[in-house]
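Friendly challenge for the regulars: who can give me the structure tokens for this chain first? No prize, just bragging rights.
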Amino acid sequence: MISKLQKSIRPVSALRGLHKSAVEVVKRPAPEETVTASFGKFISEVKPQHLSSLVLHRSKRMVLDSIGVGLLGSTTDVFELALRHCQHMYAPDDISSVYGRRGTRLSPTLAAFVNGVATHSMDFDDTWHPATHPSGAVLPAVLALSDMMPANSKPSGLDFLLAFNVGIEIQGRLMRFSNEAQNIPKRFHPPSVVGTMGSAAACASLLSLDPFQCSHALAIAASLSGAPMANAATQSKPLHIGNASRLGLEAALLASRGLEASPLVLDAVSGVAGFNAFYEDYEPQSLQSPNNDGHMFLLEEQDMGFKRFPAHLGMHWVADAAASVYKLLVGFGPGTMSPTQVQDILLRVPKSKYINRPFPDSEHEARHSFQFNACSALLDGEVTVESFTPSAISRPDLHALLRRVRVEHPQDNPANFNRMYGEVQVTLVGGDVLKGRCDTFYGHWRNPLTNESLRKKFRNNAGTVLPSEKVERLIEEVEELDRLGDCRALLSELQ
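First reply, four minutes later:
Bragging rights claimed.
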């Protein structure tokens, strides 16, 4: 059983000796010039010294934010369902910690799954461009695998951050091979595709797999990828992140044992779909391994988007636009906003079917509704965690506003997180027209949260399940992560 291996696994440096078949694979000739081989070579050969100070800074912010939203997510119903399922359906295997549940441990793959579910359970996790949620698929797997390693050979903080950044990098590189991936998705939920690949890459890096094993890990992960957008705005959407984290870890472990897969899975092979099954306009390029000049990580070129409230990223444009109208609205009355003031609400937003929900019936639908988030901001001046509670969703005043909403999709407003905008126009009963527009919300990669704002978000999220002293220690440990000899201190503070 896999649990037996996990409990007896030797240090990473000795891992290859456990797998004779993997050694035999190394001896065989490989197509060195394929795209797939180049990705495997990169994962195996990139080193901590290739991480610039900027990449370290940005990735530590991602780690902190992801842990925070995961801890908050451990209070949700969908997380509780996933955790109970794992505890009831699988034999106990007390190895890897579970967010926010002191004394609760699972097998590494199941811990990666439930922590991934927690991270995306409220749609509060980071978002990148092209559109995906990169951290939630990678960090739970890296944490679970670190827990799995023997106490005397835990990864250093730098090795931990390297693995995390490798997982982020692979996701970004794969998505840049497709123009389709540039836009808000219609077919597959991106984290269920590139997230699984990123998790596999990160775990292969942490396991110190050789280039051939790394390539096979990616190919195995491709067979475990993909979830349809139809499950957006449901309780099943967080499972996409949980499965990406879990199955990527499984792919790396299987590759470490010698399991093989297609050596051309990332290449464009006519007549046989590989990774291009997920993106119809997929045009891959080889990934150059680091040289003496280092490697330019995509995270260095483009920062990450962090959400201020738990909803689909597109909601942040309309919420900010509506909040600016709210400030004008309260000037027309007694300092509060009443639906009786409003005759008509017009939203000008991108055309995207799954986030156009006039009357959401659940918190998950509300997190994916332009109309709901605009009206919440018009009513309250902001959107917060509490905006998605049952009592907030069912307010009569909110529903009165929702009935006044119309939606337009201007041609110059594409469904693209790098180019879209949100515009809210409110016509009052007396005929006055108030307008608000947001081109770049606070938290977008073009306008990133300050460290102070990010830490405030973390304290609010983590503080729901951890005592304040533990919250502060986590902040310190993540900040010092690249200087830690091993990551045991970080791992010990997650419950």
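The first helix runs from residue 2 to 8. Confidence is low (pLDDT under 50) at residues 1-29. Your move, everyone else.
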